[in-house]
Amino acid sequence: MEDIRVVIGDSKFDVRACGVLSQDNHILSSVESDGSQTLPGGAVKIGETSKEAVVREFLEETNIRVRVGNLLAVVENMFNYKDKPYQQIIFVYEVFPIEEISDIKGDIEVKWTPKERLNALKPSPLNDIIQQLGTTIRHVINKED
């Protein structure tokens, strides 16, 4: 299956899904190749639901089997990538491990960060979503200049 990712003129568009995994008041984040942090997840594939994408991506990236909980937020993320417009729709879910987490070894580097110290996630609205977990479903528009 192909990722839902298209090029329209000079612009790119994709659909992404990620999960918030909390343990002992720490949040699991992934470390990108440029050193920035985000939530584990990735592109939704054609014919796949956003929930199915979160389960698949968590297993691929962390080797953690998860159950998907509530939808926490939908983020419309607009930014420039390599000097070209890029737009994403990001579904953010709470996730729960199906079994005890003993060892994380997947395709990417991940780390546990205390919830109160997690403030450098990209895109930036994820930081507010983490700090306000459990309040209500949020719709966020992030338009970077």
TrEMBL record:
Domain Nudix hydrolase: residue ranges: 11-135
CDD domains: NUDIX_Hydrolase
InterPro entries: NUDIX_hydrolase-like_dom_sf (IPR015797), NUDIX_hydrolase_CS (IPR020084), NUDIX_hydrolase_dom (IPR000086)
Named cofactor requirement(s): Mg(2+)
GO molecular function per UniProt: hydrolase activity
Keyword Hydrolase: yes
SUPFAM superfamilies named in the record: Nudix
Keywords annotated in UniProt: Hydrolase
Domain of life: Bacteria
Protein's recorded name: Nudix hydrolase domain-containing protein
